């Protein structure tokens, strides 16, 4: 007779396994995604704001799982081309902060994702924030830069490269071209804030090199306002980060 533990209740119990199989949640690999889904479900129940129905909670979790699986398919089967877009670590004395925005048109909301990593690729801090405003893509990315700078200040990080996958925004931040009118104030204020650090560089990264950050931006839809992780990796992001392709380089 197996001990009646939580693991037994949710997984090892034959009846429980039949329920999971019937649900079709894990058609490809039952065990592989179980921890991630339970982590997301718990996060939604705890931080999801207004009380949701079981169907709404499940729908939200499935959306996250779909986004995650799409990411894993890209990293598992990268397109063969002469130019591979990757995330590259900073030099040993610096950090790299990746930022990204996500737009949720139907909900008239936006999300921001921020990841801070060191030269070994270790996650130092992460932030996911919901923006209660119907922003466009460039506005969401500009807001991500602003919040990324603030998060760096909160984490007492002074030397880093801040990366975004928006070429237009990065060129404006580096004063290579004027910013779009809708983000003029955000760009100029972000540049001013960057001068308060010891050394900050703005750089562009291709979307494939910023996919982990995009997952965090999408995660904002399911939280009340703000989620922060310091020196720990949330379950739903762990494998995505572990499978990120990067090469040793110096900024």
What would you say the CATH architecture of the largest domain is? 2-Layer Sandwich
Largest sheet features: 6 strands, mixed
Q: List the domain count as a whole number.
A: 2
Shape: globular
Provide a descriptive summary of the structure in words:
- The structure is a single chain.
- The protein folds into two domains: 6-76, no CATH class; 95-242, 2-Layer Sandwich (Nucleotidyltransferase, domain 5).
- Helix content is 43%, strand content 18%.
- It is built from nine helices and six strands.
- Strands 5-4-1-2-3-6 form a six-stranded mixed β-sheet, sandwiched between helices.
- Helix 1 (6-12) packs across helix 2 (14-23) and helix 3 (34-47) crosses helix 4 (54-76).
Give the structure's gist in a few sentences.
This protein is an alpha/beta fold. The protein is 43% helix and 18% strand.
């Amino acid at each position: 007779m197996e001990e009646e533990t939580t693991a037994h209740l949710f997984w090892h119990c034959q009846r429980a396994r039949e329920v999971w199989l019937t649900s079709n949640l894990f058609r490809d690999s039952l065990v592989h995604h179980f921890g991630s889904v339970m982590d997301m479900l718990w996060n939604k129940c705890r931080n999801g704001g207004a009380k949701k129905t079981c169907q709404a909670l499940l729908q939200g979790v499935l959306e996250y799982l779909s986004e995650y699986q799409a990411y894993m398919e890209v990293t598992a089967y990268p397109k063969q081309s002469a130019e591979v877009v990757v995330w590259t670590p900073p030099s040993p004395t610096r950090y790299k902060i990746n930022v990204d925005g996500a737009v949720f048109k139907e909900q008239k909301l936006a999300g921001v994702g921020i990841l801070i990593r060191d030269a070994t690729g270790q996650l130092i801090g992460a932030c996911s924030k919901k923006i209660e405003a119907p922003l466009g893509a460039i506005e969401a990315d500009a807001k991500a830069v602003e919040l990324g700078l603030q998060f760096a200040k909160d984490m007492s990080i002074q030397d880093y490269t801040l990366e975004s996958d928006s070429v237009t925004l990065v060129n404006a931040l580096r004063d290579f071209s004027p910013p779009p009118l809708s983000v003029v104030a955000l760009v100029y204020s972000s540049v001013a804030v960057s001068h308060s650090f010891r050394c900050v560089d703005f750089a562009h990264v291709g979307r494939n090199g910023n996919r982990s950050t995009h997952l965090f931006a999408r995660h904002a839809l399911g939280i009340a306002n703000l989620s922060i992780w310091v020196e720990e990796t949330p379950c739903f992001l762990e494998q995505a980060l572990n499978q990120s392709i990067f090469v040793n380089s110096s900024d």
